[in-house]
């Protein structure tokens, strides 16, 4: 099965949306295999968003993401990366369908409350970056009720 890196951003934490966001993934059937709160350094964030280094909004993105604690989550499940992105909605909340996290809970691209890995390869990179201590291995009692 596949893993993805999900992160409630500082605005999501400040707005009290951590539980709401985790609940959506839990109810969908994803297994949480790592979870922690961390106030990220700019150094860590610059590695996380390295692909965006040359974009004009990059300095503001780093400032936003370093403005408070985030909640770092690793999810495991069938097609976790692509399904996680569908559940998040579009990068721009105004283009996100109702029923998605961004489409239901926020309004601006620079305050879009939650991150999700965009490829399996980036998911593995991000998980290693945010959880160098590793993840938790366990069996979920409901697995046979979620997958045939
Ligand atoms: P993440 O899940 O956070 O990686 O978002 P994404 O994959 O939907 O978008 P992308 O990786 O391209 O950009 C990362 C983050 O940079 C976005 O979530 C936004 O917070 C911010 N961002 C992207 N494009 C813009 C933009 O045009 N303007 C501003 N102000 N911020 C942007
Ligand atoms: Mg991205």
TrEMBL record:
CDD domains reported for this sequence? NDPk_I (cd04413)
GO BP term (any one): UTP biosynthetic process
- Which domain of life does the protein's organism represent? Eukaryota
The record's catalysed reaction(s) read:
a 2'-deoxyribonucleoside 5'-diphosphate + ATP = a 2'-deoxyribonucleoside 5'-triphosphate + ADP
What residues form the catalytic site here? 115 (pros-phosphohistidine intermediate)
| Cited InterPro entries | NDK-like_dom, NDK-like_dom_sf, Nucleoside_diP_kinase, Nucleoside_diP_kinase_AS
Protein's recorded name: Nucleoside diphosphate kinase
- Please give the organism: Marasmius oreades
